[in-house]
């Protein structure tokens, strides 16, 4: 019986599909259009939902019971909280954080260079991701990267 020599192309894993889709759907236009690209607009609730779905899926392969909580937004800044278990964060006085968070996230180095920080805060059962509100920070492929970095941080902390 003859053996087929035709090699079938392996189907990418879902994480590979996420990265490829973001590359084709967003990064390609970003290179062409710069700040006018879709990824430079504010992220929508649907974008956050997809981000949290990917992020929690990745974390929950190792640590069970992480769930997303509703995002909190300030002028140009978004905080996406997650919790292990059923606790709820205390948002009392959260509105007073706008100036402090803006100063932490954005630092103007010169007339042409501005650095943007991403904050990942671990507080008891909570993980807070605090970033600018632009879609480029909340893409599904970025959720994969953030989950990898979060898992590395959790391991360093002994979890």
* Low-confidence segments: none
Q: What is the strand tally?
A: 7
Estimate what percentage of residues fall within beta strands: 15-25%
Helicity level, as a percent range? Answer: 25-40%
Order of helices and strands: HHEEEHEEEEH
The coarse overall form would be: globular
How large, in whole angstroms, is the Cα Rg? 19 Å
The end-to-end span amounts to 54 Å
The structure class reads alpha+beta
Count of helical regions? 4
* Main beta-sheet annotation: 5 strands, antiparallel
Q: Mean pLDDT, rounded to whole units?
A: 84
What are the main properties of this structure?
159 residues; alpha+beta; five-stranded antiparallel sheet; two-stranded antiparallel sheet; 4 helices; 38% helix
Care to describe what's here?
With 159 residues, this protein is an alpha+beta fold. It is built from four helices and seven strands. The chain has helices at residues 14-33, 45-59, 98-105, 140-156, and strands spanning 66-68, 72-74, 77-84, 106-108, 114-116, 119-123, 126-132. The strands form two sheets. Strands 1, 2, 3, 6 and 7 form a five-stranded antiparallel beta sheet that branches. It has a two-stranded antiparallel sheet with strand order 4-5. The longest helix has 20 residues, at 14-33. 18% of the residues are buried.
SSE layout:
Elements: H1 14-33, H2 45-59, E1 66-68, E2 72-74, E3 77-84, H3 98-105, E4 106-108, E5 114-116, E6 119-123, E7 126-132, H4 140-156
Antiparallel strand pairs: 1-3, 2-3, 3-7, 4-5, 6-7
Helix pairs in contact: 2-4
């Amino acid at each position: 019986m003859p053996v087929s020599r035709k090699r079938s192309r392996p189907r990418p894993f879902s994480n590979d599909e996420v990265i490829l889709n973001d590359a084709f759907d967003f990064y390609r236009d970003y290179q062409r259009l710069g700040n006018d690209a879709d990824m430079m607009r504010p992220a929508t609730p649907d974008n956050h939902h997809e981000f949290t779905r990917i992020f929690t899926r990745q974390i929950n392969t190792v640590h069970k019971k992480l769930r997303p909580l509703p995002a909190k937004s300030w002028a140009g800044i978004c905080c996406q909280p997650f919790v292990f278990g059923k606790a709820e964060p205390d948002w009392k006085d959260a509105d007073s954080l706008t100036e402090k968070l803006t100063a932490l996230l954005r630092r103007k180095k010169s007339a042409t260079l501005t650095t943007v920080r991403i904050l990942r805060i671990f507080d008891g059962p909570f993980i807070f991701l605090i970033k600018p509100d632009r879609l480029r920070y909340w893409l599904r492929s970025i959720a994969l990267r953030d989950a990898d970095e979060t898992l590395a941080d959790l391991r360093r902390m002994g979890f």
